[in-house]
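The data layer described in this paper is built around a simple, fixed record for each protein. We quote a single record here, exactly as it is kept in our systems:
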Amino acid sequence: MGLGLGQILLIALAALLLFGNFPRLWKDLGKGVAEFRRAVDSPASSDKQVEGADAKANGGKEASSDGKTGDR
């Protein structure tokens, strides 16, 4: 009732995954959660970033309230 070769390889693979890639995965996940919390805590600053991105997409021209850029 000992461990077979397949079971030992499975345990080794699980240990490699657990101690090899998972710490990086948890670190990246933590960074994502922290970024999400910052975005949720400061919606006004993220709105300004979106407006700035919209202005860049329009070539620096601000859109009027009806969605037109003012160029005619």
Notes: Helices lie at 5-41, 43-57.
